Amino acid sequence: MELSGSYTFDAPQARVWTVLTDPETLRRCLPGCQKFVQQEDGSYAVTMSIGIAAVKGTYTGIVHLLNERPPDGYTLKVGARGAAGFVDGVGDFTLAPEAAQTRVSYVGQAQVGGKIASVGQRLIQAGAQMIAGQFFKALAKEVARPEP
Description:
The chain has helices at 13-20, 23-29, 121-144, and strands spanning 2-9, 33-38, 44-52, 55-69, 73-82, 85-98, 101-113. By secondary structure, the protein is of the alpha+beta class. The protein has a single domain, classed as 2-Layer Sandwich (Alpha-D-Glucose-1,6-Bisphosphate, Chain A, domain 4).
């Protein structure tokens, strides 16, 4: 399944990069995220509760930020498992300045299996787009907060 989209933030690129790569901010912004903890190898241990259609579950896994190019982008690799199945994905995030704003674009691939795959690709894709929308709206609030 392919996923793609973009979101424009009312902030400079350096600010968006800082917020988009902060583990505590990501934990707060990812819908259903219970844990987002950096590991010794630089990856992040993640626990999330997610529901698509009637299939809901808790997933645990690992997130890697790869090919970091501050403040222009990175590759995100995710692998998570739960009672309802699995999710594996990889995607590229690109940040680009647009006047006083920053556009974040993403494109990636995800594979799902188990019970969650039974709801059908169309519902999964719609659910993933909804989760991405919630994430970017929450992230916009974080970007707008005064810097510490």
